[in-house]
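Work package 3, deliverable 3.1, input record:
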Amino acid sequence: MQRENHPAGPGRCQVDGSPQAAVGDWVWLNVADLQLLIDALRHDGRRVVGPQVADAAVVYRDLERAADLPRGWIDEQDGGHYRLRRDEAAGVFDHVVGPHSLKNFLFPARETIGRFLREDGTWRQLDDLPPEPPLAVIGVRACDLAGLAIQDRVFLGGESVDPGYRRRRESLFLVAVNCRRAAATCFCHSTGCGPAVSAGFDLALTERDGRFACEVGSERGAAVLATVSAATSLLACSHDEVSAARGQPAALEQAMHARQEEAGQPKPRSLNTEGIRDLLFDNLEHPRWEEVASRCLSCTNCTLVCPTCFCSSVGEVADLSGDAVERERHWASCFTLDHARMHGTSVRSSTASRYRQWLTHKLAGWIDQFGTSGCTGCGRCITWCPVGIDITEEVAAIRDTAGQKESPA
Amino acid sequence: MSTMSTESAMSTESTEKPQQAKPKLAVYKFASCDGCQLQLLDACGKLMQLADRVEIAHFLEASSRVEPGPYDLGLVEGSISTAEDIERIHAIRKECRFLVTIGACATSGGIQALRNWGQIDDFLSAVYASPETISSLEKSTPIADHVPVDFELRGCPIDPGQLLELITSVVLGRRPKLPSQSVCVECKSRGTVCVAVARGVPCLGPVTQAGCGAICPAHDRECFGCYGPAEAVNLVSLTSFYEQQGAPRDKLTRLVRGINGYAQAFREESNRLEATADGGAKGRP
């Protein structure tokens, strides 16, 4: 990339006389500029998290060095299968989604939500929960943003607002990335959640020939970019370059729609969502539920990797004296017996009833409850199911034979 | 797994009266390595606090001083391996209000239950110079095969935190809060990447009860099933998938027939794997 050292001139970002990018502007960043971006975010006191190769996968971890981003790594995904492959031609973000999502940070697996002490027979709540630094996440995909929007409705919509989620969400800084490839398990094109990043980000990157076309999505994004441009001058993207960058995810979306099954290759997934709410609610006695239960392990993996599953359980943990108590919230899953345990027994004792609960809630009940499907098409539940159960295949099987009923035993 | 009754004379109120007798704890050993008792000693920091709330009346690993029974809580380590063990466990059951088995040996027969798939005389003559001096039952069996058990604390070894939760629950007169779901919950909660999916390593995590904190997968190893079968398991589906992905049948059989191999769900699956391998059925205990 050619660098310009002279003051703002033609082709440079210039808004109201200031040489800074504003919301809606596009500028070029190179790999070195990504380091400046990380530094700028960290300088503001943020904890920066980004994708990195660890434990044989691309996972979200604390990120200090842009060099730790997974440049040259491709992920192959299929039902119950994930493998990283080295590809020297691959860019920094040519992996797709790994096992982690924004959920791991905004709705953590375990959280202390209250501390209590009993003194002289009276309970007192301690107001000393440790403060958390604001979070910035680099590498978020369109499906992740869709998942975040869904979790926002769950945790922030309606009368009950989750204070911890709100605190983390309000200070969250998002550097999104437009996908350049899709795994076989990706089906965001059929859920309307991707692959193009369209809204809900502070900055969005589109990788082009070793550099990144960066769209400014918010005032906060512009402010961070201003810190970057104080250290190096940034070139504005031309009109044609912006069009080309916008065309990239659009081309991927078309390619995803055109994908065909090929012998020896993982089947490309898609989900027909037409009338899906009624389809599922009208087929609660379909024999497919028993069939999938013969394969389902009830192990909870699908729910825990799902970026939108939000169930949790709250309990008090006391010390042996019973005088010091911590109130803890931790992830729960509708695949455990405890989830539906009431009056000493579980009302969903069979695996078939638990799988049906998950799938019908995710794809049908969610629509009634939150005005949106709970599925973003990220495909995590397919990849990370230890036996490769495929949500798109289960829906298709019910759709193909809708109306069938389990014969009474 | 049986669960402990929530009824208890040791209510929260009663523990606040200083004159009230403390619950009496007894710890017993059968065929085992003592590792689970060591976990109780290992909880030392909290053991002193524990001693304020519980009278440790019978714990030979810690003290040769023995208070007479009956006891409120009996912790049993080890499996039933000799004729004398059978008599002793019946006597122990009579002197303990709550009887809790601790560890894989007591709850499923332990690693020594691998002998259940062979001939005891073959082992005796292969191992001992004078096998005629050994008096052993043909099989190693869990405590619950012989007497009613109120609660099973799983693990090889048990987790000291879970043990303290169990004892605390008895002291406070409530139900113990211990997980019965799969190890996968612990892997996902700590952010550990699945070794089965990302590395193709056959792992027992999806069918094993949580409690260890998913230690092995966090160190890139498969789960060996130390905590025994989870609440709802589907071993046939899991091993079939692993086999389809290329795992050899005999490797899967050995994986399932491990530390908790004699636990019912694991036992049935290793027998099925063996019986359907190459059409040859072997001895099925």
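Residues 121 and 323 of chain A are 9 Å apart (CA to CA).
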